[in-house]
Amino acid sequence: MKKPDRPRQPTSLAGLVEEVEACTVCAANLPHPPRPVLRVSPTARLLIVGQAPGRRVHETGIPWNDPSGDRLREWLGMTREQFYDVSRIAIVPTGLCYPGTVKGSDLAPRPECAPLWHPPLRAAMPGIRLTLLIGAYAQAYYLGTRRGRTLADTVHAWRDFLPDYFPLPHPSPRNRLWFKRHPWFAQDVLPALRERVGALRATGDNGGAHRPT
Q1: How far is Cα 159 from Cα 171, in angstroms, rounded to an integer?
Q2: 97: closest CA among 14, 28, 38, 137?
Q3: Is the pTM of this model over 0.85?
Q4: Are 8 and 23 in contact (CB under 8 A)?
Q5: Are strands 46-49 and 105-106 parallel, antiparallel or unpaired?
Q6: Are 96 and 117 contacting, i.e. CB atoms less than 8 angstroms apart?
Q7: Mean pLDDT, range 139-145, rounded to an integer
Q8: What DSSP line would sit under the chain, residue for residue?
Q9: By C-alpha distance, which of 164, 204, 159, 153 is closest to 44?
């Protein structure tokens, strides 16, 4: 397979998003025409990195617009309005386009995507102070050999990755057995997550990169 070309150097974040939206690097391997789903802003302080859009997100173009997103917002203690405030929160999945399904389960994010687009997107968002790594694919890309043997090991060691990263399991309803087997997540990790995200939002209110009008 031909190695994808690095994106050109656009003059603005808006120009970079145009490059992303025009990307066809893995189009031949997608079940539908490419439709990258992301939200970015130069003033964002929190970056959410998940897996790849599911079918519903692909159809609506709204990230985390599904039951998984409802649970994620509950974890963060946010309303939909707060969650989708792009001036504060950026959303860039590991794979930007819907990869399709096999036997009822979503396929993995395309491997070409994150190495091609995440570095320039992150460079264009200098205000990011914390990145939530949701699921094994995001953790594998950003943490590499630093991650634990299992996803549970990585999440349990969340303190080791601060202040830059906060690893989380995927909030999919299909993971209910994982949550049942790991009660420490709700007891210990979620309160710490809400506290850290809340403090980050408060910092933005009180003199950070973004001040609401």
Answers
A1: 20
A2: 38
A3: yes
A4: no
A5: unpaired
A6: yes
A7: 98
A8: -PPPPPPP--SSHHHHHHHHHT--TTGGGSSSS-----B--TT--EEEE-S---HHHHHH--TT-SHHHHHHHHHHT--HHHHT-TTTEEE--SSSS---EETTEEPPPPTTHHHHHHHHHHHT-TT--EEEEESHHHHHHHHGGGS-SSHHHHHHTGGGGTTTEEEE----GGGHHHHHH-THIIIIIHHHHHHHHHHHHHHHHTTSS----
A9: 204
Q: What is the CA radius of gyration of the chain?
A: 17
Q: To 10 degrees, what angle do helices 13-21 and 113-123 make?
A: 160
Q: Which one-letter amino acid corresponds to residue 189? A: V
Q: Count CB atoms within 10 A of the CB of residue 14.
A: 11
- Can you give the pLDDT at residue 5? 55
> Which CA distances in Å does 169 have to 78, 103, 134, 201?
18, 22, 6, 22
How far apart CA 169 and CA 175 sit, in angstroms, is 8
Question: Over the stretch 21-48, which tens digit does the pLDDT of each residue have?
Answer: 999 999 999 999 999 999 999 999 999 9
Residue 42, amino acid? P
Query: Which residue ranges form the domains of the chain, and what is each CATH number?
Result: 13-205 (3.40.470.10)
Q: How many whole angstroms separate alpha carbon 48 and alpha carbon 7?
A: 22
Q: Which residues pair with 62 in a beta bridge?
A: none
Q: What is the pLDDT of residues 186-198, one digit of tens each?
A: 999 999 999 999 9
